[in-house]
Amino acid sequence: xxxxREEALDKDRDRKIKLAILASKQGECPFHEWAYEMQAHNxxxxxxxxxxxxxxxxxxxxxxxxxxxxxxxxRTVLDP
Length: 80
What we know:
80 residues, 5 helices, 0% strand, mainly alpha
């Protein structure tokens, strides 16, 4: 599989996917759709050095979610 990846895919593919995940913002997209898309991108990196751990992906999603949703989440966590 590594040989096929090496020969058939763009050499910067993993880096481009990682940068796309890091740069992605929720924007107007519903959170669950956006998060699913980011998980799907991360799945493409499975077995590679740049694959996000579950914790790292969660942190990235939290940092890039809609501000209103983030405030709502913090209120829920701090004042259940």
